[in-house]
Amino acid sequence: MAENIPVGSTTDGAVQVGGGQPADARVSAPASYDVADFPVPHGREEEWRFTPLERLRGLHDGTAVDDGGVRHDIFSPSGVTTELVDRDDPRVGRAGKPVDRVAAQVYSSFQKATVITVPKETVLTEPVRIAAHGQGGTAYAHHVIEVGAFAEAVVILDHTGDATFGGNVEYILGDGAKLTAVSVQDWGDKAVHAGQHTALIGRDASFRSVVVTFGGDLVRLHPRINYAGPGGEAELYGLYFTDDGQHQEHRLFVDHAVPHCRSNVVYKGALQGRQAHAVWIGDVLIRAAAEGTDTYELNRNLVLTDGARVDSVPNLEIETGEIVGAGHASATGRFEDEQLFYLMSRGIPAAEARRLVVRGFFAELVQQIGVAELQERLLEKIDAELEASV
């Protein structure tokens, strides 16, 4: 069901205009570096009610012990610096504090944080690549990606293998900087991955996030956007393909706290197989000081087989009427037999026709990556997922 809410209207708990209590408790979640400030979840809490806690393997209650189960390899162009620092380094936590128990557990458990710095006014001609390969154990990691003023960069985080992994990532953009961050969750079937991605966007800076989730038994990611000055722009794109038995959960929060900033969110998912479960939560808060805000969020889901389940919850809270625009939409539907029939009537075999329809559904998002070999790899992965279901 699609929904486009204009400024000034309300729906049951999804949109609020004006002051008073937040429309949803998620937009005012507490933030702390101390894991003790977050009670162990039991699954009845609003922020945990969709998550099968028993499948988190202790990431949520402190019983998961770091045994070095993920190897990180970093490949960076000339001029980019990489450092291992302690958690008291002033750059760690600058983008924002943890907002749930898993993110706080990661913060208190990592051995060293990795800080990758792109100097100001540097324009990279090739991406920074972070390869995280699971080796069957448990690991915690914290990465800080800092892009200096007026610098431009692409950063790719590529997760493969099998592991139980808690990972936080911070993106810090200086004034006028441009960053495209691609996070690929191409884990093996047994992997568990949970963590928080937080961006702090400087004045007139542009941040593009592309989150791609295919693998893993359970993946739960929490992207968050904060603005440090007027004129900041955030584009959040997501692509997920949820198979039989997988749980994939993306919980976004965009905090418009300064004036004249923009955000655009587009997440799309395809699901197939029984017990496939995708969750998308999109929270946008426009605070009273954020005049001139322009924001929109969209989630679309394509259900390919019976037995799959989608929970899609957009939320929009507006505390000022002096904005450019704000809206959201959510739609979930089955595979259109009419599209398949149309292609087959023109001589295209059924399997190929199905592949073309699903590729077309995701094409807009894949093109946002801007790295040709990665785009082709993801399209091949989509094809492989579809072939496995035939």
UniProtKB/TrEMBL annotation:
InterPro entries noted in UniProt: Fe-S_cluster_assembly_SufBD, SUF_FeS_clus_asmbl_SufBD_core, SUF_FeS_clus_asmbl_SufBD_sf, SUF_FeS_clus_asmbl_SufD
Cited PANTHER family: PROTEIN ABCI7, CHLOROPLASTIC
Domain of life where this protein originates: Bacteria
Protein name, per record: Fe-S cluster assembly protein SufD
Recorded coiled-coil stretches: none
Family affiliation: Belongs to the iron-sulfur cluster assembly SufBD family.
Residue ranges constituting the SUF system FeS cluster assembly SufBD core domain according to the UniProt record: 134-361
Pfam families assigned: SUFBD_core
UniProt-annotated stretches for the region Disordered: 1-28
